[in-house]
Specification:
heterodimer, A: mainly alpha, Fumarate Reductase Iron-sulfur Protein, Chain B, domain 2, 2 domains, B: Glutathione S-transferase Yfyf (Class Pi), Chain A, domain 2, Rossmann fold, four-stranded parallel beta sheet, globular
Chain lengths: ~180, ~325
Amino acid sequence: MEVVDIHASCDHEFIAKVEEESEQKVRLCYQCGNCTAGCPYTFVYDIPVSQVMRLVQAGQKERLLSCKSIWLCATCESCTTRCPNEIDVARIMDVLRHMARREGYVAEKNVKKFWDTFLDSVEKHGRVFEMGLLATYVAKTGRFWTDMELGPKILPKGKLSFKPHEIQGKDKVAEIFKRFREMQQ
Amino acid sequence: MSTYAYYPGCSGLGTSQEYESSTRAVCRALGVKLVDIPDWSCCGSTPAHTVDHLLSSALAARNLALAEDLDAAAVITPCPSCLTNLKVAVHRMSDREFRMQVNKLLDKPVDRSTPVKSVLQVLAEDVGPETVAEMLPHKPLAGLKVAPYYGCIMNRPPEVMQFDDHENPMAMDNLMAALGAEVLPFPLKVECCGASYGVARKDIVAKLSGKLLQAAEDLGAHAVVTACPLCQMNLDLRQGQASSAAGHKFQLPVFYYTQLIGLALGVPQSELGLSKLCVNPRLALDAMHAVQAEKREQEAKKEAAKQIHKAKAA
């Protein structure tokens, strides 16, 4: 069993920050385990979601921001919906990955690359360009064999456009990203 | 019927074209008037909210601001991921401070709170399965056994989504029943299919979608019915990957619910887009026709027996 010396390593500032950004009271969690019971992703998590909640209560910043679970949560909202204390657990998972991004922790690099590539596509075209997204992701990760077998299944359907669907207001969308980055600084 | 501001979502222009075209056709057939939000942009989907909630709400809110000019009853979208981002944005912007922050990122600010709904909600509540059933007295999909799959975020979290039951939604079940289909009690209606991890971690999608396909197969379903482009893609395009992971070959067609309503209403094939599906939809439709033929044969036999009985009595 893992033992955490919470007196020695508890980061109170971290707890306050998670509570502020998520607008949730993490101390309300009484470890019933309902979130983990319903979470479809426990099989790939390194820390089950109820333990993530406990580690937040114990102020274990480093441990949490460097874990895989926060990158593998799909925000399916099962935990949030079923929490008896109405804690928005999925929002806390989201906030933890926001913090991990800001502090340079990435335990699942390809997941982050896929999300970043998606948003780059939106910033550039105003709408996501599916074919371009896949091509850029493959180029960035070098995973040329990923989903190769799906090509013959989807390409003949004629659904994937080889050109982006540019919108008139694409500059306005790019402005949203620009202003957001300025606000962050 | 009111006019709705329509937000198609990016996948409607690509991987879920058949959802897009069948949604428009079904809305037209049922008298639901759609006006596209002019020059709509991406809602940010999952990636945006994993980066920042303000950015995510601003990307969604640009569309809400554009929709205000249309003076529509509600903004509606077929895609649950778009729906979630639009609804979360509206929900969070009820806080004045947050709305001001969002508006700082936008060229055109959001002035009022527009209701946002899924197309499914409109068809289930504003049109209603009773109306659909009345239009189809001959129950064209009788014999088709379907497992209705809603996906994880169409109804959750209930405080934000405010539609149907969050553990056992029935909107799609009732619409399918109105077409005459045999709706199976699918226990994994709101379980996650693996969402957007298909590209970066296809092992996750293969496992989670495999679970859903297995449950549908165990119930004897001819097909799965979905309301989400991502769920449909995971269950259909990636069915081979799910089969490899499960060590068992699945062969279950995965329809959009609008394709089945459209089929029942006689929407032309070009708009139904059945040929765009990966797992051959014929597998399900042939099974349905076989059940219908068998039923007709039984009825004919019964009728013949009755006639003989009558003749003997005479």
